[in-house]
Each structure stands twice: as structure tokens, then as C-alpha cells.
């Protein structure tokens, strides 16, 4: 081959040269495949389509036999090939003989080229009793399915056309033929299902889903919805599928994989696998739902699992996560205990009183949520009011091992009054500060004794209540565990104060005790009546004892405030 000329030699004969600058790639079945490398190297980053770069040339003998089978008798063409035998040439003669329904020549040609399948095909076509059917089969052989269908329709054999379309896998044409009155519903479903498979193999899942729906192939439809992330349609299938269907469990796994706990649980429940539903809730950290399912279906293992998980979180110092875990699981008392423990730890490190107050409020709200839930559960059930109260009392006894939860608002009250007393003291309202700080003596188990009585002594001194100041200093002198230096300092302070001011209080303002059937008069700074033993609740706005009935009560914490004080604070 010269640079621009290609020669083909047949024995000792040389065919006419072909003008081409392409490079040889393959020589097979009397065809020469070449490639235009020069064109390819011009634009290697953006090559042209392969159809433009690859050129196929036919040899002289191949061209001649193609012309002969179309212009002369097929027998003469066969005899010509006999003189110059080659399998590809016999193949061309055999196919041309089929088109002319000359089955004898076709069979001989297939024998010569060792095409066993071709021989069997000719034998099968020869057995057909109708030439039109033979023509249709030959059209199918050459993949001219439309021509074959037209032939079958002309002889009124749409059933054969339908069978041909099914065998060729042209399911769209199958549906068209079914619309013309051929086939049955089962074939329609098969067609839709295969069309869905076609789109699915090409990742066109939206089209696949529509055809799977028409085919009523729920398993494939669920997979298609999952692929296109159409979880709304996927969730609708939960109610469509019959209970106990294996596909429901598969749906549950799909929903669980994307974090849709509610749908996953619904799928598992309808499939009858309650254990999988509980495990799903645990895996997705939906502990409240997990506990509800466990209680409903008597899964006692959930309690141990919940405790272990919370223990792991606490060991990893993930206290907030542990609280959230218990809250989601409706274990409000456990969350409250952790919050109280946090508050106790912070109190030892002299943390901000405002922060301490907030933590105690959170703990109290958790306990109130627990009591409210128990009460609602009992009221909406079949129990009586007495049973409801008994249940609340029993639950309190069983769950309140931490005594600080008996009255969950005490911690918040303590720091509320502690902050209020100091604010009043700095504002110069010394008598109000004394009334508020005297209330702090009820919270010695929460606040430091030194802090409580130091505040009382200071407020009493500045307000002129030296008797109360003396009591507070005596308490400070007798604090256990303090150093001798501190004790002597308190004694010296008491001497310096009371050497100038006798330990007497100013004349108190007396008011009638609001207790029932009590005629005693009490000082307006005391917190209880010495006669009837009535305790006077504190006004949460001013800190003073409430001895009248003109007060309002918070719906959440149930604490009270005098209306006049509340308006004054506003």
C-alpha cells in the first residue's frame, strides 16, 4: 500500500487501486476496515465521530456477487461462487435465495458456509404451508419486523404478529396490537413490566415507575420510587399492600435507611415484625416511640437498652445528649435527676446563680411533664378518680428516689429568692431584702448556710432588725467545719455591732393571720403563724409573705404573686 493508494491482491491478480490516505485496521470477510489517523491526530482532544474516521472498503469479488444476486438468476450466482468459493460469498447468495423463496439454493449455500443455524432455519420455513407466512418469516430473519407485521395483518393473522413482537421484545408494539383486540390482560401486564425494566436499565426510573404501576408490579414499583426518592408515593404503598406482605418489611428497611422513622415503623407493624419497628426507633434515636411500642407489645428489653445507652452517653460526658434521650423516651424523671445532679455539681464550683436557677426550672418542668402525662393517661383510661390519685402517688414513690424531686420547684425557688434578696439589697430596699432573705432559711439543703445567713445578717443590719441580725450571726458562728479564724471574725463583728445597737427589732407591723379560724396577729415579715401553724406563701415578685387573697397564680409552676406587687414591677 502506497501512501495514498491501496491495492488488493487476489492470488496473483491485483485489483484496481483505491485512493485513500487511511491506515489499515482489519481485513476480514472480504472487507477492509481502515482508520484516518491523520484526521484523528489533528484534534486528539475532540475527535470526530467514529463513523467519519473509520472507512470500510469491499473487495472486487464482494462487489461483483452483490451485483449478480440482484441482476441474474440466483442459480447462476451460486455457480459463480462455486468457481471462486468463499464463506462470505455463500452467505450473500443464501440470503438472496431466501428473498426469492428459493430454499434449495439457500440450503446449499448455508451448507457451503457451514451455517448450521441457517440450515435449520431454511428447513423450518420450507414447512410453512403459506408463501405469505414464509415471506413474513424471511422478513423477520432480516429484522424487518414492520414488513413482517404488515404481511401477517394482510392474511388476518394478528396473533402471529403479536407472537413475533413478543419474541423480538418490542413491547410497545405488543401493546398496540393488544389495543387492536389481540392478547389478554396477563400479556398487558407482562408488556408494561418489560417496558418498566427497559427504562430501569437505563436509569430512567420515573418512566419505569409509571409502567410498573400499570403492570401492578409492586416490588419493582417500590424500588423505582426509592430510586427517584419519591417517598410520598412510597408511603402510600404501605396502606395498599396487604398486611403480612414481605414487601412491607422491605419498605421498612428503605424508610429506615433514609431516616423516616414514622413510615418505617408503620411498615414493620403491618408486616408483623414489631421487633424490627422497635429496633428502628432505637437506631433513629426516637426513644419515645420505641418505648411506646415496647409497652404496647410487652417488650421489656427496651428498658435495659435505654439505660445502657444513657449510661454510655454519661460515660462519654455527653450529659445533654443523655437528657435529650430521656426526654424523647418520655422518661422525664430521669432527665430531671440528671439536671439536678448537674446543678449540684455546679453549686460546688460557685457557678452563676442565674444558670443554677434555669437548670432547676428545667428539672421541675420535666417532673411536671411526667405528672401531667400520668394524670392524662389515667383520666383518659377506664380508671376512677381515686385510682388516678393512687397511681400518681405510687408512681411518685417508685420514681422519686431522688428526694430533691419530691418538690421539684424548690431549687428554682431557692435561687430565685437568693437573687431577689441581693437585688433588693443593692437597690437599698433593705426591709424587702430582709423579708426575702428570711425565706432562704427554708432552703439550707440547696444553698450554702454561710451564704443564707450572711445575707440575712446584712439585710437585717441595714434595715435595723438587730434581733434578726443577732440570730443570723449566732448561726454563722456555729457553722460546723469552719476555721477558728472565721469563728472569731464573726464574734468580733457581733461585738462591734451590738455594743452600739442592742439586739432589738423595731416595732413590727402586725396583720391578722389568714389561717382558717385563727385570730392571732403576726408580724408582716414572718413566714408562718406560731398559733395555727399556717405557712404563708411568698410573693414571687417582692418576696414578702402573702397574707391576703388578692394574688394571681402561674398556670405552669403554680407559684403566687400579689397583684399590687405585680403591677408595681411592671
Write the layout of secondary structure elements.
Elements: E1 5-6, E2 9-10, E3 13-14, E4 18-19, E5 23-28, E6 31-35, H1 37-42, H2 50-53, E7 54-58, H3 60-71, H4 74-83, H5 87-99, H6 103-112, H7 116-126, H8 131-141, H9 145-154, H10 158-168, H11 171-179, H12 185-201, H13 205-215, H14 218-227, H15 231-240, H16 246-257, H17 261-271, H18 274-283, H19 287-296, H20 301-315, H21 319-328, H22 332-348, H23 353-380, H24 385-399, H25 410-427, H26 430-439, H27 449-463, H28 466-477, H29 484-498, E8 510-512, E9 521-523, E10 551-553, E11 560-562, H30 563-569
Antiparallel strand pairs: 1-4, 2-3, 5-6, 6-7, 8-9, 10-11
- Average per-residue pLDDT, rounded, comes to 85
Characterize the overall form. elongated
Q: Return Rg in Å.
A: 49 Å
* Count of β-strands: 11
**Which segments are poorly predicted (pLDDT under 50) over 5 or more consecutive residues?**
396-400
The amount of helix comes to 55-70%
Task: Summarize the biggest pleated sheet.
Answer: 3 strands, antiparallel
Proportion of β residues? Answer: 5-15%
Q: Span between N and C termini?
A: 107 Å
Order of strands across the widest beta sheet? Answer: 5-6-7
Structure overview:
63% of the residues lie in helices and 6% in strands. It contains 30 helices and eleven strands. Strand 10 and strand 11 form a beta hairpin. The radius of gyration is 49 Å and the shape is elongated. A three-stranded antiparallel sheet has the order 5-6-7. A two-stranded antiparallel ribbon has the order 1-4. A two-stranded antiparallel ribbon has the order 2-3. With 570 residues, the chain is mainly alpha-helical. Residues 396-400 have low confidence and may be disordered.
Amino acid at each position: 500500500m502506497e501512501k495514498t493508494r491501496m491495492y488488493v491482491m487476489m492470488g496473483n491478480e491485483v485489483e484496481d487501486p483505491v485512493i485513500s490516505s487511511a491506515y489499515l485496521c482489519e481485513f476480514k470477510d472480504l472487507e477492509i476496515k481502515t482508520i484516518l489517523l491523520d484526521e484523528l491526530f489533528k484534534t486528539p482532544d475532540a475527535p470526530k465521530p467514529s463513523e467519519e474516521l473509520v472507512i470500510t472498503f469491499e473487495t472486487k469479488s464482494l462487489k461483483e456477487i452483490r451485483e449478480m444476486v440482484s441482476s441474474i438468476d440466483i442459480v447462476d450466482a451460486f455457480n459463480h461462487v462455486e468457481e471462486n468459493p468463499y464463506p462470505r460469498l455463500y452467505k450473500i447468495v443464501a440470503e438472496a435465495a431466501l428473498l426469492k423463496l428459493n430454499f434449495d439454493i439457500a440450503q446449499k449455500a448455508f451448507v457451503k458456509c457451514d451455517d448450521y443455524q441457517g440450515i435449520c432455519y431454511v428447513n423450518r420455513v420450507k414447512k410453512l404451508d403459506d408463501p405469505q407466512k414464509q415471506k413474513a418469516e424471511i422478513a423477520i430473519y432480516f429484522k424487518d419486523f414492520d414488513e413482517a407485521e404488515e404481511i401477517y395483518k394482510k392474511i388476518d393473522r394478528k396473533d402471529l404478529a403479536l407472537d413475533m413482537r413478543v419474541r423480538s421484545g418490542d413491547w410497545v408494539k405488543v401493546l398496540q396490537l393488544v389495543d387492536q383486540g389481540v392478547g389478554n390482560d396477563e400479556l398487558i401486564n407482562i408488556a408494561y413490566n418489560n417496558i418498566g425494566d427497559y427504562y430501569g436499565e437505563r436509569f430512567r426510573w420515573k418512566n419505569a415507575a409509571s409502567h410498573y404501576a400499570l403492570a401492578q408490579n409492586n416490588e419493582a414499583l417500590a424500588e423505582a420510587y426509592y430510586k427517584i426518592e419519591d417517598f410520598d408515593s412510597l408511603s402510600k404503598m404501605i396502606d395498599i399492600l396487604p398486611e403480612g406482605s414481605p414487601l412491607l418489611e422491605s419498605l421498612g428497611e428503605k424508610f429506615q435507611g433514609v431516616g423516616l422513622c414514622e413510615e418505617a415503623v408503620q411498615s414493620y407493624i403491618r408486616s408483623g415484625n414489631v421487633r424490627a419497628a422497635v429496633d428502628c426507633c432505637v437506631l433513629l434515636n426516637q426513644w419515645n416511640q420505641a418505648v411506646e411500642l415496647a409497652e404496647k407489645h410487652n417488650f421489656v428489653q427496651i428498658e435495659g437498652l435505654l439505660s445502657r445507652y444513657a449510661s454510655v452517653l454519661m460515660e462519654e460526658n455527653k450529659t445533654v445528649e443523655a437528657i435529650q434521650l430521656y426526654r424523647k423516651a418520655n422518661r422525664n424523671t430521669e432527665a430531671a435527676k440528671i439536671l439536678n445532679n448537674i446543678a449540684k455539681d455546679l453549686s460546688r464550683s460557685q457557678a452563676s446563680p442565674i444558670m443554677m436557677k434555669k437548670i432547676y426550672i428545667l428539672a421541675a418542668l420535666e417532673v411536671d411533664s411526667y405528672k401531667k402525662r400520668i394524670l392524662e393517661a389515667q383520666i383518659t383510661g377506664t380508671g376512677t378518680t381515686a385510682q388516678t390519685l393512687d397511681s400518681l402517688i405510687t408512681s411518685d414513690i417508685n420514681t422519686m428516689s431522688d428526694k430533691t424531686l419530691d418538690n421539684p420547684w424548690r431549687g428554682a425557688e431557692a435561687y430565685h429568692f437568693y437573687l431577689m434578696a441581693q437585688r433588693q439589697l443593692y437597690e437599698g430596699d433593705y426591709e424587702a431584702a430582709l423579708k426575702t432573705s428570711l425565706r432562704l432559711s427554708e432552703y439550707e439543703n440547696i444553698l450554702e448556710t454561710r451564704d443564707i445567713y450572711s445575707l440575712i445578717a446584712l439585710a437585717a443590719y441595714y434595715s435595723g432588725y438587730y434581733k434578726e441580725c443577732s440570730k443570723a450571726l449566732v448561726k454563722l458562728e456555729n457553722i460546723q467545719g469552719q476555721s477558728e479564724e472565721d469563728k472569731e471574725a464573726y464574734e468580733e463583728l457581733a461585738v462591734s455591732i451590738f455594743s452600739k445597737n442592742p439586739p432589738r427589732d423595731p416595732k413590727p407591723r402586725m396583720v391578722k393571720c389568714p389561717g382558717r379560724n385563727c385570730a392571732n396577729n403576726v408580724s408582716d415579715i414572718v413566714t408562718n403563724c406560731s398559733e395555727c401553724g399556717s405557712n404563708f406563701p411568698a410573693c414571687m415578685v417582692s418576696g414578702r409573705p402573702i397574707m391576703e387573697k388578692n394574688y394571681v397564680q402561674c398556670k405552669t409552676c403554680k407559684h403566687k404573686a400579689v397583684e399590687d406587687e405585680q403591677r408595681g414591677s411592671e
